[in-house]
Amino acid sequence: MMNLSRAVVRSFATTSNRRATAVGKDQIDKGYFEIKKVQEHFQKKDGKPVFLKGSVFDSVLYRITVALALVGVGGMTKLFYDLSVPKKE
């Protein structure tokens, strides 16, 4: 039991550099290049915030969220007005 726990701790404690040399430096996973491509897309200097750089769907969701927030602020304003101004009978 003690040897198993030492092996688990050793596997987590091993640095990534040592693991890379054990596997081989010439073997780079293709997912690495896909991640780099996505990072370059989101780090482009085009003046857009990062939450709008995904697709048109991100823009639609953002506009819906802003519209619902404005509706909520309007509703709260109406509520405060109705509660603060007495109604005439």
From TrEMBL:
**Principal location class:** mitochondrion
Residues crossing the lipid bilayer are: 60-81
Q: Signal peptide position in this chain?
A: none
> What organism is recorded for this protein?
Drosophila lebanonensis (Fruit fly)
- Which InterPro entries does its entry note? Cyt_c_oxidase_su7a_sf, Cytc_oxidase_su7a_met
Record's GO cellular component terms = mitochondrial inner membrane; respiratory chain complex IV
Protein family per UniProt: Belongs to the cytochrome c oxidase VIIa family.
* GO BP field: mitochondrial electron transport, cytochrome c to oxygen; mitochondrial respirasome assembly; regulation of oxidative phosphorylation
User: Which protein, by its recorded name, is this?
Assistant: Cytochrome c oxidase subunit 7A, mitochondrial
Q: Which UniProt keywords apply?
A: Membrane, Mitochondrion, Mitochondrion inner membrane, Transit peptide, Transmembrane, Transmembrane helix
Where, per UniProt, does this protein localize?
Mitochondrion inner membrane
Q: Does the entry feature the keyword Transferase, yes or no?
A: no
Q: What domain of life?
A: Eukaryota
Taxonomic lineage from the root: Eukaryota, Metazoa, Ecdysozoa, Arthropoda, Hexapoda
Keyword Metal-binding assigned to the entry: answer is: no
